TrEMBL record:
Top EC class of this enzyme: hydrolase
EC number, as in UniProt: 3.4.11.2
Spans traversing the lipid bilayer: none
One Gene Ontology biological process: proteolysis
Tree of life domain: Bacteria
Aminopeptidase N-like N-terminal domain residues: 50-215
Cofactor (UniProt): Zn(2+)
Family, per entry: Belongs to the peptidase M1 family.
GO cellular component: cytoplasm; extracellular space; membrane
Name the record gives this protein: Aminopeptidase N
Keyword DNA repair: no
Reaction equations catalysed: Release of an N-terminal amino acid, Xaa-|-Yaa- from a peptide, amide or arylamide. Xaa is preferably Ala, but may be most amino acids including Pro (slow action). When a terminal hydrophobic residue is followed by a prolyl residue, the two may be released as an intact Xaa-Pro dipeptide
Signal peptide: 1-22
Length: 481
């Protein structure tokens, strides 16, 4: 029988070529970029430039229908393309407009394009899949009382959408969220279009980031929410998302954000993104999270019971500080996490000190007394031990919080307050929208100080025990390193 349809002939030829390629390639396997703490996270061979994510929400117990579109650049010849993805079902995949074979290998989605992709050429990937909010112990989607939010740190974004799930590969994001009538959807960045009505009363909400973002910082909130808008320093748009029923109770907390931004800018320079706000969710996560431009908080933090007001404000400043340290300047590897959490803890402690509630010196002395114990349990701040299997947030131990802030305190004691402030400002200015690691920080501090600080900082960063604190012989004297 002769084929008379050019389109049908092309489809059959593409299918045949996929079968031939699959026949000569070895079985797919999960790949990684060699991160010490997450060896199979991230994928070699390409650089993601942008994600365009579409989600159709029904309820917080049903898989969302989703489309992930990735624009990337191939860095080397690719017979296969590995993406991090699990906890969803793939229906179809295309690479550069042609159907692609897809298989799972571990927590990787492995695509085999109709023909190998040459290096240094655009790479356009489209995947139709589901995104399953069930199984919250794995991270990713977080069911709330009225919908969903995201908590992707450290390695859970690929439980929501196919991606290159490592902070070293930042990209721009567009979100398109379709939700039933009566619900509001919000995501990182700025509204890219007016909410668009759909069939049966549904609405599609579109947002776009104006700065690149790590996958672990993506945020989508769907629920019975109120969006509270205000203006911060130099006209900065402030946009917070709270349960609609709790708006009046929470607005006094939201009104503090502008002053928090002002306080941070006075210490490290201009806020680095297009907008900022807090997302207060009715969920029990056990943590707050610095999702870019829209930090996630548990509603219980603001309930008025159990937490003094100064503490709540300090926590709000902690997540805000991450917008500079961790979001704009993103760690090159997960072992560089101390640069995120140490700095956020530093500014949290400095803010509490300014309120006269918990002095910086007292907090650092208490951290110094516990530091050896923290290092023994979780590793030194710049070389943390991997989390135990099934304990995804186990990486976030005291050594990378107060233990890392202690390093910054020691640095300030060693080089003086003025030089330390120059280090902080230059760190965020020179690495804005990029990635940086521990060696970069040591190099910059040395440049500002006018001498090699590696011999001083390396024991603080990597030693099993804590060095002597400059200027504080009363804290216990020299320790063995």
């Amino acid at each position: 029988m002769q084929l008379s349809s050019p389109r049908l002939r092309a489809a059959l030829l593409a299918a045949a070529s996929l079968t031939l390629v699959a026949a000569v390639l070895p079985p797919p396997e999960p790949l990684g970029i060699g991160d010490t703490l997450f060896p199979q996270l991230g994928n070699p061979g390409y650089d993601v430039l942008s994600y365009d994510l579409s989600f159709t929400y029904k309820d917080n117990k049903s898989p969302l229908d989703a489309i992930t579109v990735i624009d990337a650049r191939a860095l080397e010849p690719l017979e296969r393309i590995n993406l991090d993805f699990t906890h969803g079902t793939v229906a179809a995949a295309r690479v550069n407009g042609e159907p692609a074979r897809f298989e799972s290998a571990g927590e990787d989605l492995v695509l085999t394009p109709a023909s190998p992709v040459a290096p240094n050429v655009p790479l356009h990937i489209e995947i139709r899949h589901t995104s399953d909010p069930r199984g919250i112990a794995d991270g990713g989607w977080v069911p709330t009382d009225d919908g969903l939010a995201m908590a992707n740190q450290a390695d859970a974004a690929h439980r929501v959408f196919p991606c290159n799930d490592h902070p070293s590969d930042k990209a721009y994001f567009t979100f398109r969220i379709t939700a039933p009538a009566g619900l509001t959807a919000v995501a990182n960045g700025m509204p890219a279009a007016l909410p668009a009505p759909r069939a049966a009363g549904a609405t599609t909400w579109t947002y776009r980031t104006l700065h690149p973002m790590a996958t672990e910082l993506a945020q989508v909130s769907i629920g019975d929410s109120a969006v509270v808008e205000a203006t911060g320093p130099h006209g900065l748009p402030l946009r917070s998302v709270v349960p609609a029923a709790d708006r009046k109770r929470l607005e006094p907390w939201l009104q503090k954000t502008a002053e928090h931004v002002r306080w941070m800018e006075a210490r490290v320079g201009a806020y680095p993104f297009e907008n900022y706000g807090v997302l207060i969710a009715k969920a029990k996560t056990g943590f707050e999270l610095e999702t870019q431009t829209l930090s996630l908080f548990e509603n219980g933090l603001f309930s008025g019971t159990g937490y003094p007001a100064w503490y709540v404000e300090a926590v709000m400043v902690h997540e805000l500080a991450h917008q500079w340290f961790g979001d704009s300047v993103t760690p090159r590897t997960w072992s560089d996490l101390w640069l995120n959490e140490g700095h956020a803890t530093w500014y949290e402690a400095l803010y509490a000190d300014g309120l006269g509630k918990y002095s910086m010196e007292r907090r650092m002395r208490e951290a110094y007394q516990r530091s050896d114990q923290w290092r023994a349990a979780g590793g030194p701040p710049a070389a943390p031990k991997a989390a135990a299997p099934g304990e995804k947030i186990g990486l976030f131990r005291p050594a990378v919080y107060d233990g890392a802030a202690l390093i910054l305190y020691a640095l300030r004691q060693e080089i003086g307050e003025k030089a330390f402030d120059r280090v902080e400002r230059r760190w965020v200015a020179e690495n804005e929208d990029g990635t940086a690691g521990t060696e970069d920080f040591v190099r910059l501090a040395s440049e500002v100080a006018g001498r090699d600080l590696a011999p001083f900082l390396k024991p603080w960063l990597y030693a099993k025990t804590t060095p002597a604190m400059p200027g504080h012989p009363e804290w216990g004297g020299p320790k063995s390193v």
